[in-house]
Amino acid sequence: MIGTTAHFPKVGARELPAALTPAASAPRGSAARGSAPGAFTLIEVLIVVVVVGLLATLVIPQFSSANQQARQNSLKDELQYLRTQITVFKAQHQEVPPGYTNGDPTAVPSAGAFTSQMTQHSDVSCNVCRPVSPAYPYGPYLKQLPVDPMNNLCTLSLVGNNQPMPAPDGATGWIYKPQTQEVMANVKGKDDSGTPYSAY
C-alpha cells in the first residue's frame, strides 16, 4: 500500500544457525593446542634428528674409505704415467734421462731441468724450446708436473748421482733419481693393505 511502511524481522547474532557461528567452524581442540594444523611436535623433530645422525655415522665412514681408495689408485696411475714418459724421453735422447742440463749425465741434476725437458719441446741433446720448431722435434712429454693425490703437491725432489733414495718426508710431491730413473711418491705412511706409498 502507498504510505505504509514495510517491516522486516530483525535477525540478531543469537538467531544465526549453529553451523554458521565461528565457534562451530573451528576444529575441536585447536584453540587448546595453540599451534597451526600440521606442525611438528618437539618429539617428532628429535626423532628425525636422531635418525639423520645414525645415517651419517653409517654413510660417512664408507664414503671416506672409498675416497681414500680412489686417491691410492690415482697415485699408482700417476706414477706409472711418469715412469713411462721418462722412459720415452730417455729413448729419444741418446739414452740420457730427463733432469740433466744440456744432456750431460755427469752433471748435477736439477728439478728445473727435469720440468722444462718434460713440458717443452726438445732436441736430441736435451736442449729445450717452448714453441714448436723443426729443430726441436721431441716432446712435450707432460703438460705439467702431475699432482701427488696423497699430499696435493706437484713439486719434485731430485737425487744426485750415486746417492741413495731418501726416505719420504712429505716436503714435495715426488722424488726422482735421474741416474736410475727411479720415481716415488714423497708420502709417508701406508695404504689400506699395509704397503708403503713410497713402494708403489
Protein described:
- This protein is mostly helical.
- Helix content is 34%, strand content 8%.
- The chain has four helices and five strands, in the order ααααβββββ.
- It has helices at 22-25, 30-33, 42-92, 111-119, and strands at 121-122, 128-129, 156-158, 174-177, 182-185.
- It has a three-stranded mixed β-sheet with strand order 3-4-5, with helices on one face. A two-stranded antiparallel ribbon has the order 1-2.
- β4 (174-177) and β5 (182-185) form a beta hairpin.
Instruction: Please mark out the parts with pLDDT under 50 across 5 or more consecutive residues, or reply none.
Output: none
> What is the overall shape?
elongated
Proportion of helical residues: 25-40%
Number of strands: 5
Quick one: biggest sheet?
Answer: 3 strands, mixed
Strand content: 5-15%
Averaged pLDDT, please? 84
What is the terminal-to-terminal distance?
A: 115 Å
Number of helices: 4
> Which structural class best describes the helix and strand composition?
mainly alpha
Write down the Rg: 39 Å
**Major beta sheet, strand line-up:** 3-4-5
